Amino acid sequence: MSMRRCGVVALALMLGACGGGVVPRPSNPSSHEPPVRKPVAAKPIAPITVAPPTGALNAAAAGVVGGPPISSLPITDAQAVRALAAFRLSCPSLMRRTDASGLTRGADWQPACSAAATVRGNDARAFFEQWFESVQVGDGRAFATGYYEPEIAGSRDRRSGYDVPIYGRPTDLIEADLGQFSDDLKGKKIRGRLDRNALVPYYDRTQIEEGALSGRAPIIAWAADPVEIFFLQIQGSGRLKLPDGSVMRIGYDTQNGRGYTGIGALMKERGLLKPGQTSMQGIVAWLRENPAQGRDIMRENKSFVFFREQNGPPLGALGLAVTGQVSAAADPKFIPLGAPVFLSADRTDATGLWVAQDTGGAIRGANRIDTFWGAGSEARAIAGGMSARGSAFLLLPIGTLDRLTAEKASAVR
Questions:
Q1: Which has fewest Cβ within 10 Å: 96, 204, 239, 300?
Q2: What pLDDT digit, counting tens, does each position of 86-132 carry?
Q3: What's the pLDDT tens digit per position in 250-262?
Q4: Torsion sign (Cα): 99, 44, 389, 235
Q5: Does some domain include residue 41?
Q6: Are both 324 and 277 inside the same structural domain?
């Protein structure tokens, strides 16, 4: 994705996964972090009982069954309006892209997309009821986390209090698309550098922090806190609050090719986190209270992200702007990018209509949703503790399920 290359998930809850929507220190050190939002409990809609095959590689292989009528889903008018705007923005990609989930074809989306272009906001809910049907992918059991666009203290130039470099793409970093060498390796890339005539792994986090990039990469800005920039790398995009009060937006450019290690898992395994300290805020607090040990733990994550300055809003995997409270990251092998998804969760803030406009390294498998909450303290408080379970119902153009059923029946004859 453009906004987050290493799927931002609730670190305190995923712990071993790639990511963690960790709350960075506010730009004003005297201010206080908002507490993790206490969820309001809700009773999710029970998924339809099915026995999906194990090891399915996409939604078509996992199997789909018809879900509840869309008119019966508790979609609020505000959610429908936001989802309509996001869906309308995603339509060109839906009609153009090859659907890795195996569920839809570009032409399937044409009628709904044509209708979306003329629908008024107050008819948004009726639009989804008229043009879509809900389906359940696999067993329908969903797990949702949250991410947001962080804002941390930074400076365009090095000055007192701002001495953590934020690097742009190194000049000696090589990216190789392995699919050009073998059809079996389509979609796979490696990154490295040349050492004499050999391609070797690129410098890891420790080597970079110890100066390996000197003369090899531009420094586009300077951060005030190594913990902040560490977690902004996990997010993959964010805002730098500059000393004069202005904002500089930076986004993911590329990565060093090293594997990601979730430091939350290491901290838990080593007994470093006390009960009640396993929230994102608790993990950040521990790292700041134990700077030397914290630095060593962060260095065990060898992955390192390089940034570029952005002039517009954060972008998702479709190259489109993502919007708080409606955009979500999903696995495109199970949810077509650009498609609406209704999430019925055990907490009210996660329940609603989302549009899959992003992806993430840890967002893998059927019914795995990472909800985007925008920027600011409110978004930080919600995303920081988001962990919801329930059911997911994918919204597909009407007639898709009948076509898939007919194709499946024809294939077994």
A1: 96
A2: 999 999 999 999 999 999 999 999 999 999 999 987 899 999 999 99
A3: 998 999 999 988 8
A4: positive
A5: no
A6: no
Please report, for the domain that includes residue 372, its CATH number.
2.40.40.10
Last residue of a domain, one of 243, 272, 305: 305
pLDDT digits (tens, 9 = 90+) for 67-80: 999 999 999 999 99
**Domain range for 322:** 59-145+316-411
- In a domain, residue 32? The reply is no
Residues 6+ apart with CB under 8 A from 192: 173, 174, 176, 199, 200, 201, 202, 257
How many Å apart are CA 143 and CA 40, to the nearest integer?
Answer: 17
Q: Is the pLDDT of residue 29 over 50?
A: no
Cα dist from 198 to 50, 174, 192, 260, whole Å: 51, 12, 10, 24
- Interatomic CA distance for residues 286 and 243, integer angstroms: 26
Whether this model's pTM surpasses 0.85? no
Q: Is residue 248 part of a domain?
A: yes
Nearest alpha-carbon partner for 207 in 303, 283, 313, 279: 303
Of the residues 285, 305, 325, the one at which a domain ends: 305
Q: Contact, 388 vs 43, CB < 8 A?
A: no
